[in-house]
Write a structure and sequence with these properties.
The chain has 174 residues and is an alpha+beta fold. The protein has one helix at 2-28, and strands at residues 34-35, 39-51, 58-74, 79-95, 100-114, 121-133, 146-156, 162-173. A hairpin with a 4-residue loop joins strand 3 (58-74) and strand 4. The two termini are 14 Å apart.
């Protein structure tokens, strides 16, 4: 399941990066300081997955809404700041056998860079996802709920030297 979630997370990270590149590109061409208002978008979302925290593993399908909140600004000194927050709202999933899941998912990405040479620069990407299996009966000692907390951070100073390169990924059944 972790591989499946990472594949989905990789796709999500690609779209997040694309949105940030577009936002930064639009801001780089600006001549004065701008602070765009946050833009919120919600769209229906369907998700398929497999819970490997139970035996045998359970395939499930879920529906809900994917919520985006995007903001960006450009200072008069040329510093670009972009923030993207996504979360799944009201996502519920069900297996063929009728087992139900409640899914909690949030992710944030913050990007700050100086134009035009991109240094200094820092970026933080974090997401938390939980697949909470309803009706846990206690037969699985490790738990039947899937949990993942991913955190990555990078900082490059004004001289272009990487000063922070940090990554953690806590994945477990609970």
């Amino acid at each position: 399941m972790a591989a499946l979630l990472r594949r989905g997370a990789s796709r999500r990270a690609f779209f997040v990066l694309a949105a940030l590149v577009l936002a930064a590109g639009a801001l780089i061409g600006a001549t004065g300081a701008t602070a765009d208002p946050a833009v919120a978008t919600t769209t229906p979302f369907t998700f398929n997955g497999t819970n490997t925290c139970v035996f045998p593993a359970e395939d499930f399908v879920g529906t809900g809404e994917l919520h985006f909140l995007i903001s960006a600004n450009l200072s008069t000194g040329g510093m670009v700041q972009s923030h993207l927050e996504t979360n799944l709202q009201g996502l519920h999933a069900v297996t063929v056998s009728g087992k139900k899941y409640v899914v909690v998912d949030t992710s944030t990405q913050t990007l700050v860079l100086d134009t035009p040479d991109v240094a200094p620069f820092h970026e933080t990407l974090e997401w938390i996802v939980q697949f909470i299996r309803q009706g846990e009966d206690g037969t699985l000692l490790g738990g039947d709920d899937f949990y993942e907390h991913f955190l990555a951070h990078a900082t490059v100073n004004a001289n272009g030297i990487v000063t922070v390169d940090d990554f953690s990924d806590d994945t477990r059944c609970q």
